[in-house]
Structures are given as C-alpha cells and as structure tokens.
Design goal:
Elements (H helix, E strand, L loop, with lengths): L1 E4 L3 H4 L7 E12 L6 E12 L3 E5 L6 H8 L7 E6 L2 E2 L5 H11 E5 L10 H12 L5 H11 L14 H13 L5 E5 L7 H18 L3 E4 L3 H4 L4 E6 L2 E7 L3 H10 L3
Parallel strand pairs: 4-9, 4-10, 7-8, 8-9
Antiparallel strand pairs: 1-11, 2-3, 2-5, 5-6, 10-11
Helix pairs in contact: 4-6, 5-6, 6-7
C-alpha cells in the first residue's frame, strides 16, 4: 500500500504516458459567475492507464460527480484539457462529442437505467443499434459468459433481481468495447452480498479483458477491489492509495477534512 498526498508528483505531473485512456490536465470546473460562483474542480491533473481499476472517493461536495461528468465528456471543463482515448474533447460539437462518448466510453449507474420494455439481449445490444455499428459476436459471447447472463437473454428487467439488472447494465456498457467504463456508485442500490458479486465481476473484467474501470464510490469495501483509490476534497486531488484496503480507505476518509 502506498499513500501519495496532495501536490505529490503522482497527482500533479503533466507527462502523460501513451497508454493513458483518460487524461485530465489542470482541469477547473466553475458553476455560476461572480460572487455566486461555485468551484467544483480546482486544477485537477490525473491520468488513468489502460487495464486499471480506480476508485474515486471523497466527502459530499468534494467534486466526485463533477469529476465523473467532466472526465466522461458529459460536461465540459471551464479551463484545462480532457482527453478520451487521446482525443481532446475541446472544440468538438455536441454531436461529435456524443459520438466520442458512444464509441469510447461505457457507463454504469446506481439506478441501472435499463429499458423496461426490452429483453436482456435487446438492452445489451442497444448501444450498437443506436450507433449503427456492427456487433462483435465473439466479444458479446465473452461478456455474456463473464456476467452470467446467457440463460437470461429473453427476460425483461422486471423479471430480474437487482444484481442481475446491474450485470445487464455492465454488459451493455461493455458491448462496444469502450476505452473506459465509468461506474457511478454501481453498488449503491444493492445489498452487501450482491454488491460483492458485482464488484468481483468488475475486478474480473479488468483482470481478464484489460478493461479500464473508473468507479465513483463512497464505500471503502468497494474501493478495496480497485488497484488504487483517489481522494478528492474541495475539488482538488487530496491523495491516493495504491492497493487499498477497506480499513486504510476508511481511515483516510475519516481524516480527509483535517
């Protein structure tokens, strides 16, 4: 385990290795103007390497949600640079940005966000249909095998448990083979046992397919499944832990505001 504190070379370096699939350099995000302006991100510089699993943590109001939205191209930074798969999102129209997200980014949310009228198979294939791309059937078979959904393809979301629905959401996020999968509190709506199964699935996907996962979470147990835990406070990088354990993450979270 290694702890790097705020303003460390790891947190602040601007030398981006070629295998970083997501890169933020000196990113600021400000909402509003004048005296009412709120600084959500304050000079964040971070990179995420291919095949890594990162947990992003911090207290309420630390900038976690804003970070996810900006890093995933859902929102634009006020200042600084964001690159997805080496592509700078600045200067792209909303249409081009939507295409970039569709091709390079997968999303998993706490609320699953499945289409209730579609079957499991139809939900999983939906990003390919919307993008008018070609389905990689070999890759789909791998996803179905790893998520354990092969015998659930004709079911609808209402016929599945919460854990099964989240597995469908993960499969849907992976079907286009994105550069990075962003997960926003993916176990927040699940019980402890089911949460562990979903987290173990994400860990397995990283280890066996080389998928990059960036997960926003408040749960130290969830963070312990990641390769590293990053901590935000007041819109800045407050530190990081390599090979985090639930205990070390919980302890750092307790003292984060000190």
């Amino acid at each position: 385990m290694r702890l790097a504190l705020r303003n460390s070379a790891v947190a602040e370096t601007s030398d981006a290795p070629q295998d970083q699939v997501v890169r933020l350099d000196a990113v600021h995000k400000v909402y509003g103007k004048g005296e009412g302006a709120v600084v959500a991100l304050d000079g964040v510089t971070l990179g995420f390497e291919s095949g890594s699993f990162t947990a992003v943590m911090g207290p309420s109001g630390s900038g976690k949600s804003t970070f996810l939205h900006v890093a995933a191209g859902l929102d634009r930074p006020t200042e600084g640079t964001v690159r997805l798969g080496g592509v700078d999102i600045a200067g792209h129209s909303e249409t081009k940005l939507a295409e970039l997200r569709r091709d390079r980014v997968g999303f998993v949310f706490q609320a699953f966000n499945l289409m209730p009228s579609l079957t499991v198979a139809e939900n999983i294939r939906l990003p390919v249909r919307l993008g008018k791309g070609r389905l990689d059937r070999d890759w789909l078979s791998q996803i179905l095998a790893r998520t354990g959904l092969t015998d659930r393809l004709r079911h609808r979301p209402s016929e599945l448990s919460g854990g099964q629905q989240q597995r469908v959401a993960i499969a849907r996020a992976l079907v286009t083979r994105p550069d990075v999968l962003f997960a926003d509190e993916p176990t927040g709506a699940l019980d402890t046992s089911t949460s562990r199964e979903v987290l173990e699935l994400l860990r397995e996907i990283v280890d066996t397919t080389g998928q990059t996962v960036v997960m926003v979470t408040h749960d130290p147990t969830a963070a312990a499944h990641a390769d590293r835990a990053l901590f935000l406070a007041d819109g800045q990088v407050a530190g990081q832990l390599e090979s985090p354990s639930a205990d070390t993450v919980a302890d750092l979270m307790t003292h984060l505001g000190d």
